[in-house]
């Protein structure tokens, strides 16, 4: 019983410290475009994404948007959907490389105006290449390689963002799409209001007093 009360007071102190800040969040949108295609392939860029074709095979890149990702925390993020369709029959196949860029627009904001920091937007650009190898209706492989730099950090609206383009979900040919992906970790860099420090100090001070009283009790 003697341990539960200090832990309870510590939990109260921490909750007072992060109460409003826990509601801060960020949104992001992506805009994919194709820069070039090898082996004589063609491509078209549009408002919702892009596509590249060679022979009977087409690669689709689709923009994505996500909202309500909480700060602080870590998230695996989808930065673009990738699909592949083909009508090429074996033993024929299509092999080509698609060089692309993904413009990632991230917006930080304190939900309801109560969180720390300010509304702010940062634009980042990720580039890479998708390699389609030996694609036909019965076979084929899709590889993705991000161009360096693939990671970085910045401060936006009182929040530190650490991100990396570090994963890829393979699409199923003539089936479910895959995705370009990464991870984003966030934490606050804004200095809490003085009232928050006072309440945190009261909570920790209360815990210290309990420990002192317990140590002196036997006397």
Secondary structure elements and pairings:
Layout lengths: L3 H15 L5 E14 L4 E4 L3 E6 L2 E6 L2 E6 L2 E14 L7 E17 L9 E17 L2 E8 L4 E6 L2 E11 L8 E11 L5 H23 L3
Antiparallel strand pairs: 1-5, 1-7, 2-3, 3-4, 4-6, 6-12, 7-8, 8-9, 10-11, 11-12
Task: Summarize this entry quickly.
The protein is built from 2 helices and 12 strands; from the N terminus they run αββββββββββββα. The protein has 219 residues and is an alpha+beta fold. The C terminus is likely disordered.
Walk me through this protein's architecture:
The protein is an alpha+beta fold and 219 residues long. The chain has one domain (24-191). It is 17% helix and 55% strand. It is built from two helices and twelve strands, in the order H-E-E-E-E-E-E-E-E-E-E-E-E-H. It has helices at 4-18, 194-216, and strands spanning 24-37, 42-45, 49-54, 57-62, 65-70, 73-86, 94-110, 120-136, 139-146, 151-156, 159-169, 178-188. The strands form two sheets. Strands 2-3-4-6-12-11-10 form a seven-stranded antiparallel sheet, with no helix packed on it. It has a five-stranded antiparallel sheet with strand order 5-1-7-8-9, with no helix packed on it. A hairpin with a 2-residue loop joins strand 3 and strand 4. Helix 1 runs antiparallel to helix 2 (194-216). The longest helix has 23 residues, at 194-216. The chain is elongated, with a radius of gyration of 25 Å. The protein starts with a helix and ends with a helix. Mean pLDDT is 82; it is low at 6-22 and 190-219.
Number of domains: 1
The helix/strand class is alpha+beta
Globally, the shape reads elongated
Strand order of the largest sheet: 2-3-4-6-12-11-10
Instruction: Give the termini distance in whole angstroms.
Output: 21 Å
Count of DSSP helices?
2
* E-strand count: 12
- Percent in helix: 10-25%
> Helices and strands, in N-to-C order?
HEEEEEEEEEEEEH
Average pLDDT, rounded to a whole number, is 82
Please outline the major beta sheet: 7 strands, antiparallel
Q: How much of the sequence is in beta strands?
A: over 45%
- The low-pLDDT segments are 6-22, 190-219
Radius of gyration: 25 Å
């Amino acid at each position: 019983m003697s341990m539960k009360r200090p832990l309870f007071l510590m939990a109260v102190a921490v909750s007072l410290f992060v109460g409003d800040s826990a509601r801060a969040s960020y949104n992001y949108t992506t805009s994919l475009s194709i820069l070039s295609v090898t082996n004589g392939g063609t491509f078209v860029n549009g408002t919702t994404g892009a596509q590249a074709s060679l022979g009977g095979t087409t690669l689709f890149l689709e923009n994505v948007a996500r909202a309500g990702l909480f700060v602080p925390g870590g998230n695996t993020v989808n930065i673009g959907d990738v699909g592949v369709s083909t009508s090429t029959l074996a033993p024929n196949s299509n092999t080509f490389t698609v060089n692309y860029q993904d413009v990632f627009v991230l917006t930080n904001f304190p939900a309801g105006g109560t969180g720390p920091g300010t509304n702010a937007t940062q634009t980042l650009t990720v580039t890479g290449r998708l390699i389609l190898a030996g694609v036909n209706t019965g076979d084929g492989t899709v590889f993705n390689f991000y161009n360096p730099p693939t990671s970085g950090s910045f401060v936006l609206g009182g929040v530190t963002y650490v991100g990396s383009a570090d994963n890829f979900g393979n699409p199923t040919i003539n089936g479910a799409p895959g995705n370009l992906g990464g991870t984003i970790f966030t934490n606050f860099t804004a200095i809490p209001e003085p009232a928050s420090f006072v309440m945190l100090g009261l909570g920790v001070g209360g815990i210290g007093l309990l420990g002192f009283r317990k140590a002196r009790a036997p006397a």
